[in-house]
Amino acid sequence: MSENSREKAPSRRQFLSGAAAVGVGAVGAGAARAADPDPLITQVQEWAQATGEGVDATPYGLPIQFEDDVVRRNVEWLTADTISSINFTPIHALDGTITPQGCAFERHHSGAIELSKADYRLMINGLVDTPLVFTYEDLERFPRENRVYFCECAANTGMEWAGAQLNGAQFTHGMIHNMEYSGVSLRTLLEEAGVKPEGKWVYVEGADASSNGRSIPLEKAMDDVLVAFKANGEALRKEHGYPVRLVVPGWEGNMWVKWLRRVEVTEMAIESREETSKYTDTLEDGTSRKWTWVMDAKSVVTSPSPQAPIKHGPGPLVITGLAWSGRGSITGVDVSVDGGKNWIPARLAAPGTDKALTRFYLDYNWDGSEMLLQARAKDSTGYVQPSKAQLREVRGENSIYHNNCIQTWWIKETGEAENVEVS
Amino acid sequence: MSKYPELLAASALALCLAVPAHAEKFGLGRPALSEEIAAWDLDVAPDGTGLPEGSGDVFTGEEVFAEQCAICHGDFAEGVDNWPKLAGGEGTLSDKDPLKTVGSYWPYLSTVWDYVNRSMPFGNAQSLETDDVYAMVAYILYSNDIVDDEFTLSHENFLEVEMPNAAGFIVDDRETAEAHFWTSKPCMTDCKESVEITMRAAVLDVTPEETAAKATEAQPSVQEASVEVEEKPAEATAVEQTAALDPEMIESGKKVFKKCQSCHQVGESAKHRTGPALNGIIGANAGAVEGFKYSKAMKAAADDGLVWTDEEMAAFLAKPKAYMKGTRMSFAGLKKEDDIQAVIVYLKSFGG
């Protein structure tokens, strides 16, 4: 195998010169005739002659080496320490809607802990008839549900409030993942303990040293919240709360408490650190919104984008991205190539489903000129994703959280892309 | 009519049972014991529900804070590096870059008490005495000019403390304040006259870019190679010594080290964090890890010729503050001798 074929992303310089060459070759070419026979076809390749790896070479498979740049990445300057930090899903390099667990973003407040199923306990206490303790095995005996939901950190796109800052969909929109969860409805567990009439909230808490806890209105807790132990068919990963995490569909990721150890039924919100000093949204006049749980409808073009430039020159181009809403399902996505002057309805890969990612495509014939690429999501409540200017008009620039504005990628003639803001 | 009416009736009944009845109990789990609830149910609500009896004054709080918190939050709660600032920022919430601290932002005192009690200090959570929590919270209030230096905080006067930004919050009003986002049918053509680029991410250049990362990676690999050559002898001794170390001790030391790793790193890519990187620390001169800013106490000990022998390290780890008055290491110490020995062996596995 040639060394060249093992190279992954070319350097910026290589990319620029390469793109220019491709551009020239592609003009008017259509299905261009090759000058010389392709040795990959005319010569017998090593992989067509010798044998490959046997079964069991990798008892639990990892992506092939050529894909080893498709990984979670961290922005070091964001936080003081990786133990209390966040990284980003490589959404620019993924397709479909399900996020593989191994590259789904991580957010820890006190590091990812190792908690075995044998050591796992879940307590239901507070305003209940009988406070209960469940083991992991107990949880497996309750009727189970399977549901696909997105989990988005409230701070996703939070670095973009004051201006275009991070150059890549992974960094601007990668605090999100979408998995199929298997677990027990929280309602089932609460009913097992018997909620007293004066109970109005639940306070949910994790087992790690951060004691991350959030207050959730009982109405939501009894609606669609899941106590999940599997994601995408297999056990949760350590970094996502193994063995048990909470799934709070459509609501900000911080509430999806990992290593869930306690659910307390209370009369009022506890107003813990993560629901007062953090995850509250400061408006321009200095007052702050609290209990901003639901994630507004949002979308982003994942490719082309700064980390996924166009390398093939003009002609057929797949413009694709993701859309989601914490209030319901995505009903449509429009794409603009001129910075929002005109919009073209994109094709949804499948009809939108409740509080889950929707993949969209725009099959486009690119003429090689500059584009200001945007996507705009619409959800089942009639909400239309706002522009950054519209959001700032209501919220100012200090909200940190819940930035669901329309994103603009400036696609240049070379095919390179940059995160920009437009008028 | 069936020949088996009873059977029909029976299967009809079975059918009913198969449909999950609302609020049906499964009889799974077991009742939680009061001791268990007491151990885990520690949260404190804004009205003081859950607050244990106790008290602590500003003066004591200052001492405890210096010992337990200052390494990250600064002696005056002003914050070190990227760690949270706990004091200051009053009146900045409508500024371009608001400074959100306990004084300028936090609406409830219960949140401060609860968070310190359950989640601090970072890396050694739930190790504080109740009275010390009261004292530290009193000190944080004092740092924010909310109380004077004579103040003692207790469960009795807890609700009397007025937090400056208590009225600074409103409940999520997006559905009314942003009702105009529910437009259903947005503009599709000629939506604006002109479009200009007003800001570019490349101007800021703060992205950990993949292509850039790969390009820079190529260069250091040459440097790394030369470093490797230089360090070969040292590495060889490290490997030899590792071979002589008890793997079980290394393994249990690794577990003990979890208590240290919020501040210290070991291994190939170890960097200084709140504490210095510890590769090769056993047998090394104290206060000598390059690029780390030590406390005066540690520097003085280094000048006196302190060497981290097994014995000295064991004594330090047992009670850091007693062993070295003035060390910045805010760690209570390892109580078990076995743990101390194991962590020393673990540290040795990284050279020294």
Explain what this protein looks like in three dimensions:
The complex is a heterodimer of chains A (423) and B (352). Chain A has 423 residues and is mostly beta strands. Chain A has seven helices and 24 strands. Chain A has helices at residues 12-26, 39-42, 136-139, 169-173, 186-193, 218-221, 388-395; strands spanning 73-74, 85-88, 107-108, 121-126, 132-135, 145-152, 176-185, 201-206, 213-217, 226-231, 234-235, 245-247, 260-266, 281-282, 288-290, 298-303, 315-324, 330-336, 344-345, 347-348, 358-366, 371-379, 408-411, 417-422. In chain A, the strands form six sheets. Chain A has a five-stranded mixed β-sheet. The radius of gyration of chain A is 24 Å and the shape is globular. With 352 residues, chain B is mainly alpha-helical. Chain B is built from 14 helices and five strands. Chain B has helices spanning 5-18, 34-40, 58-68, 70-73, 109-119, 130-143, 174-177, 201-204, 210-244, 247-257, 296-303, 310-318, 320-323, 337-348, and strands at residues 30-31, 55-57, 152-154, 169-171, 197-200. Chain B has a two-stranded antiparallel sheet with strand order 2-3. Chain B is globular. The relative contact order of chain B is 0.09. The interface between A and B is large, with 105 and 88 residues. β15 of chain A pairs parallel with β4 of chain B, so a sheet runs across the interface.
Topology:
The complex is a heterodimer of chains A (423) and B (352).
Chain A lengths: L11 H15 L12 H4 L30 E2 L10 E4 L18 E2 L12 E6 L5 E4 H4 L5 E8 L16 H5 L2 E10 H8 L7 E6 L6 E5 H4 L4 E6 L2 E2 L9 E3 L12 E7 L14 E2 L5 E3 L7 E6 L11 E10 L5 E7 L7 E2 L1 E2 L9 E9 L4 E9 L8 H8 L12 E4 L5 E6 L1
Parallel strand pairs in A: 4-13
Antiparallel strand pairs in A: 1-2, 2-3, 4-5, 6-7, 7-10, 8-9, 8-13, 10-11, 10-12, 14-15, 16-17, 17-21, 18-19, 18-22, 20-21, 22-23, 23-24
Chain B lengths: L4 H14 L11 E2 L2 H7 L14 E3 H11 L1 H4 L35 H11 L10 H14 L8 E3 L14 E3 L2 H4 L19 E4 H4 L5 H35 L2 H11 L38 H8 L6 H9 L1 H4 L13 H12 L4
Antiparallel strand pairs in B: 2-3
